[in-house]
User: Fold this.
Amino acid sequence: MSKGFSSGIDFGQFAVLTRSLRRKGWFPFAVAALAILLMIQVIRLFWLVITPVGPVGDWRASEVQLLSPQSRLALFNSFDPFFRGEPAQSGSVVTSLQLTLYGIRMNEGSGLGSAILAGPDGVQESYAVGDEIAPGAKLASVQFDHVTIDRGGNMESLYMDQSVPAETVGGESGIAQPVTSTLLDGAPEQAPAAALTGGLASGLSGAVTMQPRSFEGKVTGIVVSPQGSGAMFKAAGFRDGDIITSVNGKPVTSTADIESLKSQIAPGARISVNVERGANTVPISINLPGQ
Assistant:
C-alpha cells in the first residue's frame, strides 16, 4: 500500500518536472527572439532619425509625357462618357446659325480656348469653351480654323471666312507701317455729297458706327463698321470688323472712351488709333482739315 502510494507520488513529480523543464526550455528562446526583434526595431528607428530625408542614389523623376492639344481633343471627342453606345460626333455639319467667326485663341496648356463671334447685329464678343453663344447653343471646342458648337447635343462647325485674302500689313522688314488717312477737300468722288457739304468731321462721325467689344464683362475695344455707302469709312483707313484698342496711346477700357473718341472728331483734329485687324495690330492716323 505504501509502495504504490510512493510510486504514484514519484510519477506525478516526474510529470511536473518534465512540464517544468519543457517550459524552461522554450521560454529562454522566445525571450531571446523577442529581444533580437526589439533590438532590430531600435536600430532601424535610430537609423531613420540620423539619416537625412531624401532620395538614395542618383534618383531622377520620370518626365511627364503630355499629348498635344489636337491629340487630346481627338481623344476626348472619341469617347462620350454619357452615351457610350453612340458614336462620337465629329461636328462636320456646318451650322446654320447666323454667326460670324472673327478670331480664335487656343490654350495649349489646358486644351481649351476662346473665340470672337458676332451675331446678326454685328457686335463682337469673346466666348470661352462652354459658354452659351446663342439660345440652346454652346461653344464646345476651338480648332485651328474653326469652332465646334454644341447645339442641343448635335455638333456643328463654324469656319472662319477665308474667301478674302489676307492683307499685307508690314513692308519688306515685316514691321507694320502706320496708315495715314488725310481727309481733304478733294475727297474721293464716291464719297457722299452730304459728307462733303456738311463738313468732313460731321461726315466721318455719321459714316462710322462704334460698338463696344466686351470680354468677361470688361470693355476691351471699339468695333467700327461702315454706315451708308462706306466711302468715308474707307477713306479714314478703316475696314469692316476693325477693333480700336487704343486712342492717342490710351487703351480703351470703358464705353466712355467711345464718347471721348466721338468728341475728338472735329475740324483740325489729329487722332491716332491702334486697330486690331485679324491677327495684326495696325496704327491709323486720322488728320482732319480745319474749317
Confidence is low (pLDDT under 50) at residues 1-9, 86-91, 164-199. The helical segments are 2-50, 69-77, 193-197, 200-207, 231-235, 256-264. The longest helix spans residues 2-50. The domain at 179-287 is CATH 2.30.42.10 (Pdz3 Domain).
